[in-house]
Design a protein that fits this description.
single chain; alpha+beta; Trefoil (Acidic Fibroblast Growth Factor, subunit A); 6-stranded antiparallel β-barrel
């Protein structure tokens, strides 16, 4: 089952710094350790520059958005939080009016609602949030205004745009061009509620091909052997290295993760000897 909470569960590797195999067997007490976070598991708050080259990097996987119709002056909501239709009649936004992105590429997404269903288009063009898993009918394209990146249109899989109707219904049947004005029922003002910046986001955002050299360069330069010498000379006796669960499948982890972090972890154990 695809888990999207943070897209990783960290394992913790504790390397004891020593000068002999005997010391490795019986580490010096008390243990004085330092955490090497942000190295083998990406954390955006530690090194946000890693994400700078991702197109639409404010719309990474797991980002939560709210959509407000410019013509109805109301937010889009999944009725009952999911399991029913979508409407555009909410004066304020909360959980039912918040949609989590599953990013397919820089402009194509699935929308997950409060009740964990996915938004989809029915054959009559109406919008519902009833799918347990996304497919073609649950795949949408976000089109941004050239003058305001948080003014967007949503293209449905039928090639038409979503529009907010006067009866508060939401339908995928608008085919006209836009001037991005407040008189266009297919235009929505988007609020970015929150986002994630982790290993899944960087691999998914760049794509595995582009993410591979970026992450491998990061692994080989962010922490080096000289850092281990400095740590030891400073009186510390251990390092704590968070690693992702996908390292168990290295060098061929499941998509979109990049292989190679296990080799770097092996170096860390050698540097700690």
């Amino acid at each position: 089952m695809r888990s999207r909470l943070f897209h990783y569960a960290s394992l913790l590797m504790l390397c004891f710094l020593s000068r002999s195999s005997a010391a490795m067997a019986a580490p010096r007490l008390p243990v004085r350790a330092v955490n090497l976070g942000g190295w083998l598991v990406t954390e955006g708050w530690i090194l946000p520059s890693l994400f700078d080259g991702i197109p639409n990097n404010d719309l990474l996987d797991g980002t939560q958005l709210q959509f407000k119709s410019v013509t109805q002056n109301a937010y889009v909501a999944a009725e009952n939080g999911g399991g029913a239709g979508l409407v555009a009649n909410r004066p304020q936004a909360s959980g039912w009016e918040t949609f989590k992105l599953w990013r397919i590429n820089q402009v194509t997404f699935n929308f997950k609602v409060f009740g964990n269903q996915f938004v989809g288009v029915k054959s009559d063009g109406s919008l519902v949030a009833t799918a347990a898993a996304p497919g073609r009918s649950e795949t949408f394209r976000l089109v941004r205004s050239p003058g305001d990146q948080y003014r967007m249109r949503i293209m449905a899989p039928n090639g038409l745009f979503l529009q907010a109707n006067k009866d508060a219904s939401l339908t995928a049947d608008y085919g006209q061009r836009t001037s991005w004005g407040d008189d266009d029922p297919s235009v929505f003002v988007v609020t970015r509620v929150t986002g994630l910046q982790g290993e899944y986001q960087i691999c998914n955002g760049y794509g595995t091909t582009k993410a591979t050299p970026i992450l491998r360069n990061h692994w080989s330069t962010y922490i080096v052997e000289a850092d281990f010498r400095f740590i030891s000379e400073s009186g510390l006796t251990a390092v704590r290295i968070p690693v992702g669960w996908w390292i168990a499948n290295d060098p061929r982890p499941p998509a979109p993760y990049v292989g190679g972090s296990l080799k770097t972890l092996d170096k860390a154990f050698k540097w700690a000897e």
